[in-house]
Design brief:
alpha+beta, 500 residues, 3-stranded antiparallel sheet, elongated
Length: 500
């Protein structure tokens, strides 16, 4: 410490200013490095938050003492990476993101002496809240809102009114929920409310489209509408064709748009087929026979035949044997026939229009080959009325990808360069200070003579020329030199002791 004070006392004003500036720059550099090393990295906690829910989310986080940042114009909230788990627990406890109503815990705080009407309203609210919590657990559902209509009980059954339910669903991806989950939600709500039929449950999405009941608004069996079938076909065909373009001409050089007209009607075909040869079913046979002998002539019968001789004679001579036979046969044949009932499922393509857009960087010869390939892959049939349109335009350049919020390779390189600059600054500052120290504490002439041991005779000569005892400054300087370079002083003393 004494040496530092001595060095500082011997520095000039300019040297002291330089030393103070170097110390200040070192402190600032250390502070900047500390801030960069301890800077918090934020992680997105929730996205797609409704503006009405953003204030509730921030209040909940502030109440727990968790810092936050608003992103995406207030529709997303980010918190420090170390506080993500605690923030999720806080939001789950307050249930601000789900937006669901309270359930049967409403009865825990019910006041004593509540009227029958209040109890009914509380029960309806609790049931709606429980249904919302259950529906929100379905995969693909982000939030839901359930409204129940529970009519009062009537004395006569013919005067009773059946309950109804309305469900509003918001999906995670923003698209339409599938037919299976929609059907499951409808039956879930119907089974949770006494006397409620699934046909009296109405389910809609955020766009106002009716997802349930089945068959309403152009929907088909299974709750899938004609528009949904066409959209699914268009998306599937576009994905296949875009994959073909990406593998041939490269990514982001071609796009395909498909618009198809699908036959979404359920039809039943009946076919009746007859056999070429009949099969005998019944057979009837009828036979009739009559046998008899002729009468002898005795005298004739009374009347004209007996009075006329010619007739009488002839009559008396007849009387030979008689035989009568009759046969009738009838057969009924049955014809074999086959009746076939076929139910034709929807999905037949009536017509489709395909648009192919290619970047101008693709040669014209390749565009012609691509047109033929797309025509075959899409199944274009001109007799059916299908069309294929090809265009070549200059594609827009893709936007630059934003750098991630966390530290990357560039940041680490920056930190390394700053560290090297700090080390270099310290090295140069130390060298400068050492040079200043050497200039201030320049070795006196008599100390230089100590480096090469001087004999006592030579010292006696110098002693007669210069009297050191009369100058106290020299004595102090000798003490300082002895303290700074004791090895050389000891060497000189040993040399004097050998001489004397």
């Amino acid at each position: 410490m004494a040496q530092i004070k001595t060095v500082l006392s011997r520095l000039s004003t300019r040297g002291k200013v330089a030393l103070g500036g170097a110390a200040l720059a070192l402190i600032i550099l250390a502070f900047v490095l500390f801030q960069m090393a301890t800077k918090q990295s934020y992680t997105t906690l929730a996205t797609g938050i409704e503006p009405a829910e953003t204030g509730q989310v921030t209040e909940t986080l502030a109440a727990k003492g968790i810092p936050y940042q608003l992103q995406s114009s207030g529709t997303a909230v980010a918190v420090p990476s170390a506080d993500v788990s605690e923030a999720r627990i806080a939001l789950a406890e307050s249930d601000v993101l789900g937006g669901s109503k309270p359930g049967f815990e409403l009865f825990d705080s019910q006041q004593f002496g509540a009227s029958d009407f209040q109890q009914k309203v509380t029960y309806q609210r609790a049931l709606e809240g429980e249904l919302e919590r259950t529906i929100n657990q379905v995969e693909g559902v982000r939030s839901s809102n359930v409204q129940l209509t529970l009519p009062e009980e009537q004395l006569f059954s013919e005067e009773s009114v059946k309950p109804t339910a309305a469900v509003l669903i918001a999906s995670d991806s923003g698209g339409r929920l599938g037919a299976g989950p929609v059907r499951g939600i409808a039956h879930l709500v119907a089974a949770s409310v006494e006397g409620l039929d699934a046909s009296n449950v109405t389910i809609t999405d955020g766009s106002g489209a009716t997802l349930w009941p089945v068959g309403e608004g152009g929907t088909l069996g299974g709750g899938v509408s004609k528009q949904a079938i066409e959209a699914r076909y268009d998306q599937s065909m576009e994905t296949r064709l875009d994959g073909l373009l990406a593998r041939t001409i490269g990514p982001e050089k071609g796009r395909v748009q498909v618009q198809a007209e699908i036959n979404a009607d359920h039809t039943t075909q009946s076919k009746l087929t007859y056999a070429k040869k009949g099969t005998p079913l019944t057979r009837q046979a009828e036979h009739e026979s009559l046998k008899g002998a002729g009468a002898t002539a005795a005298g004739g019968a009374a009347g004209t035949a007996g009075n006329i001789p010619s007739y009488a004679a002839g009559a008396g001579t007849t009387g030979g044997p008689s035989n009568y036979k009759r046969a009738n046969e009838e057969t009924q044949y049955g014809v074999d026939k086959t009746v076939t009932h076929t139910q034709v499922a929807p999905g037949t393509v009536n017509r489709q229009n395909v648009a192919l857009i290619v970047d101008k960087s693709v040669p014209a010869a390749e565009v012609v080959q691509l047109e033929k390939a797309i025509e075959g892959a899409a199944g274009i049939e001109k007799k059916r009325g299908d069309t294929l349109t090809v265009s070549r335009i200059a594609f827009a350049k893709p936007p630059e990808v934003a750098t991630p919020a966390g530290p990357g390779v560039t940041d680490y390189v920056k930190y390394g360069l700053l560290g090297l600059a700090g080390v270099a600054f310290l090295v140069f500052a130390a060298r400068h200070l050492r040079r200043k120290q050497d200039e201030v504490l320049a070795e006196p002439v008599w100390l230089k003579e100590l480096n090469a041991p001087t004999s006592l005779a030579e010292l006696e000569v110098h002693r007669r020329d210069d009297d050191f005892d009369e100058d106290p400054t020299l004595v102090n300087n000798a003490d300082e030199v002895a303290a700074l370079d004791s090895d050389k002083v000891a060497q000189q003393l040993r040399a004097w002791m050998k001489e004397g």
